[in-house]
Amino acid sequence: MPDPAVGRLLVIAAAAIEGQELRDEVVRHLDGSNARVHVVAPALARDQFHHAMGDVDAPREDATERMDRSIETLRAEGIEVSGDIGDADPKLALADSVGDFDPQEILILTHASEDGLWLENEIFDDARREYDMPVIHVVVGDSGEGIAERERSGVGADEHPEPETEGESANLPTFSVRDIFGIIVALLGIIVLVVIVAGCEGASLTDLNNCSVAILIAGFTALINLAHVVALMLFDSVGYRGGWQRAFGNLSLVLTPAAIVATLLLV
Questions:
Q1: 3-class state of residue 109 by DSSP
Q2: Distance (Å, rounded) from C-alpha 12 to C-alpha 100?
Q3: Which among 16, 45, 208, 236 could bridge 66 via Cys, Cβ 3.0 to 4.6 Å?
Q4: CB neighbours of 54 closer than 8 A, spacing ≥ 6?
Q5: Selection from 44, 25, 21 nearest residue 9 by Cα
Q6: How many CA atoms, within 13 angstroms, populate the side-chain half-sphere of residue 101?
Q7: Which of 208, 205, 217, 200 is nearest to 260 (CA)?
Q8: What is the Cα–Cα distance from 48 to 119, expressed in whole angstroms?
């Protein structure tokens, strides 16, 4: 059964719209009289490490290029299209776009799993459970132009097929991978620093020898890391996902290794 045509189509482009097959996929979802398309290219990091470290420049450059190529392709078909760069977290990029564009349908383009960026495979499952409009997921072929796979949700948000094994609870924090990685680094860093300075001899607050400086560095870092963990808990409790959350996470990820190196050199 062909998909019904709509007036407002939101495209989440983890892969660019290129080639006739992908152009046709977009066009067949549109009501030609008043059709509008909004392309959002999430600034996806290459892997979990770069995402956790807050890598921004390279992902934004890739996303900008992906968005520009997609817009150029659709405008060549005479389609009214706009575009934007989305958040590094595709779930947030999708939520922001739905709120701003108010689409009637969502089309998600991703790469094949072995070639795709690490967060791509989560976008469709999140979208079909969250939104009560049709969601179509198209996996782009190896050439970057054809369609390797296509799946569609029904109208209305889908329930998770195995809710009891989802591993999430309304009573537990919904941390991102970067948050979890940052918390692990923070807590392990505190333990490592304590072990390093525990063997220090001759430390005195009145005599700033190497051991005293190492203890001060370890204590300061431990306070920062504890503040990081507490802040993430508070941010999650109010649903905050802004710059301060990323700042706390990046501070622990950068400060903790630097503090460990400094204390090792001092003792």
A1: strand
A2: 14
A3: 16
A4: 178, 246, 249, 250, 253
A5: 25
A6: 27
A7: 217
A8: 8
Show Cβ contacts of residue 126 under 8 Å, excluding neighbours closer than 6 positions: 90, 91, 94
Number of Cβ atoms within 10 Å of the Cβ of 40: 26
Given phi > 0 = left and psi -120 to 50 = alpha, else beta, which region is 239? left
β-strand partners of 105 = 9
Of 176, 224, 159, 221, the C-alpha closest to 194 is: 221
pLDDT (tens digit per residue) in 22-81? 999 898 888 765 789 999 998 887 655 555 555 567 888 999 999 999 999 999 988 899
Residues 1 and 24: beta-carbon distance below 8 Å: no
Which residue, chain included where needed, has tokens 């807050």? 54
> Which pair of structure tokens corresponds to residue 182?
């940052």
Residue keyed to tokens 């996303």: 63
Per-chain mean pLDDT for the chain: 76
Q: Is the entire prediction scored with pTM above 0.90?
A: no
Is residue 91 within 8 A of residue 128, CB to CB? The reply is no
